[in-house]
Design goal:
The chain contains 15 helices and no strands. The chain is an all-alpha fold and 306 residues long. Helix 2 (55-62) packs antiparallel against helix 6, helix 2 packs across helix 12 and helix 4 packs across helix 15. The two termini are 38 Å apart.
């Protein structure tokens, strides 16, 4: 299977990857690869607002692991419940991603402690269908893997193809999505090929019991926001969420997706990519810098982060 989970559906992130030239001497090729790795800048890879289109799809992917799914559905931490506090949940999730990818070691350490405090009560009880613990590195690795896949595919769909060096650089950099919490650095698969083996094995184990699926459909249909905000936005969110899901996840969720819908999705992706590539890098990254500044302001003030 391709490096992209969307390879069987219309536009494929990996099918847009630029081929590696074989005409240059091997020594100069190695030199260019080393230079590109040294120059890798995560800010170049951010697709801006377009990246938010995959938010709900990524939540579905994460909760496909039964331990993660039931950990969220059964959680007693109401302050982090998206159905009760959607705007706070959005802020804290974006804050974690921004800190993990753009923050300093100090930023990540402070945010890790805040997340750890929130995770303490998140563990299975005697009546839970599966055993789980929010501090389990295996569960956190799966969540980080889903975040990476969503980031990788969104970057390719909305900014265009990556060459192998850039794709390798992005993959290696994204270990922070897991190591910013309890995932040991050595647990992150060594390279993209090793990750693909891990990912395919994980997809084969994905399942959505009815309590988890029901919760996710509420998120997809935006039932946690006021009704005036659902009008128009809910169908749009549902369309892009299903379109951005890997086929295996769609099947496991029992979601229909027709060739006609795929063709419409592909047309929208091309339009969004056109606009995104015209948007200056500073504009695409401005919300990230503002969110990181907000996190650091909260830290200085001693306010809660999660």
């Amino acid at each position: 299977m391709s490096d992209s989970p969307h390879a069987r559906d219309g536009i494929s992130a990996s099918s847009m990857t630029e081929p590696r030239s074989s005409s240059a001497p091997r020594s100069s090729s190695l030199s260019r690869r080393s230079e590109k790795r040294a120059d890798f800048d995560i800010a170049d890879q951010m697709p801006g607002a377009a990246g938010m289109l995959g938010a709900a799809a990524n939540v579905i992917m994460q909760l496909g692991h039964p331990g993660v799914g039931y950990g969220v559905v059964e959680s007693k931490v109401d302050s982090g419940n998206v159905m009760l506090h959607p705007w706070k949940r959005l802020r804290t999730t974006i804050s974690y991603l921004v800190v993990a990818l753009f923050g300093t070691d100090t930023d990540r350490n402070v945010y890790r402690k805040a997340v750890n405090r929130s995770h303490v009560p998140v563990r299975s009880g005697p009546d839970s269908p599966v055993a789980y613990n929010a501090f389990d590195p295996e569960l956190q690795l799966w969540v980080a893997a889903c975040l990476y896949v969503g980031f990788r595919d969104g970057r390719t769909l909305f900014l265009g193809p990556m060459d192998d060096e850039t794709a390798d650089g992005l993959y290696k950099y994204c270990h922070r999505l897991g190591t910013s919490l309890q995932v040991p650095r050595e647990a992150w698969p060594e390279d993209r090929a090793a990750f693909e083996e891990y990912w395919q094995a994980g997809l084969a184990k994905v399942r959505y019991d009815e309590p988890v699926r029901a919760h996710l459909m509420k998120v997809v249909e935006l039932r946690m926001v006021p009704k005036p905000l659902q009008w128009g936005n809910a169908p749009l969110n549902t369309f892009f969420t299903i379109g951005l899901l890997p086929p295996e996840i769609r099947t496991a969720m029992g979601l229909e997706w027709t060739p006609k819908q795929q063709a419409t999705f592909d047309r929208w992706v091309r339009r969004i990519r056109f606009v995104t590539r015209l948007t200056p890098r500073w504009a695409r990254n401005l919300p990230i810098h503002l969110q990181l500044a907000e996190v650091r302001f909260r830290i200085r003030r001693g306010w809660k982060l999660t």
